[in-house]
Amino acid sequence: LMPSASLGDTVHMYEPSGGSAPDIAGKGVANPIAQILSGAMMLRYSFQMETEAAAIEAAVETVLKSGNLTGDLMEEGKKDTAAKTAEVGDAVCAALSGP
Questions:
Q1: CA-CA distance, 14 to 6, in Å (whole number)?
Q2: What pLDDT shows up at residue 27?
Q3: At what angle do helices 85-97 and 50-66 cross, to 10 degrees?
Q4: pLDDT value at position 19?
Q5: Span 3-13, average pLDDT
Q6: What would the pLDDT profile of 44-97 be if each residue is shown by its tens digit?
Q7: CB-CB contact of 53 with 94 (8 Å)
Q8: How many DSSP H helices and E strands does the chain contain?
Q9: Which of 5, 67, 69 is closest to 32 using CA atoms?
Q10: How confident is the model at residue 2 (pLDDT cuts 50, 70, 90)?
Q11: How far, in Å, CA of 40 to CA of 45, rounded?
Q12: By the 8 A CB rule, do 33 and 1 touch?
């Protein structure tokens, strides 16, 4: 869930702090939230788009509170109902679009 940024004098890089997780690549089980929040950081710090960054953060919060979670955020015994990577991403997009 942790976004990160390496801010240089002229070049900035944004990425999740958790690494690439090649062992789960292509399985649809990765949590996309840190990548999405890294995008919000990019909008805020590289493009001074505070309103847009805040909207993404609010959409992520809405999705997390809704319980639409990937398995890494779920209790043992409930992981069989975990959302796939794309489902969580789609839910964030839907929350951005509003009701």
A1: 6
A2: 95
A3: 120
A4: 77
A5: 94
A6: 999 999 999 999 999 999 999 999 999 999 999 999 999 999 999 999 999 999
A7: no
A8: 3, 2
A9: 69
A10: very high
A11: 9
A12: yes
Joined together, the tokens standing for residue 56 give 């993404």
Distance CA 63, CA 56 (A): 11
Planar angle of CA 5, 26, 38, nearest 5 degrees: 15
Please name the residue ranges forming H helices in 1-99: 33-47, 50-66, 85-97
Q: What are residue 15's DSSP bridge partners?
A: 4
Query: How much is the average pLDDT of 19-35?
Result: 92
3-state secondary structure of 8: coil
How far apart are alpha carbons 99 and 83 in whole angstroms? 20
Residue 11 region, left (φ>0) first, then alpha (ψ -120 to 50), else beta?
beta
CA distance 18 to 76: 21
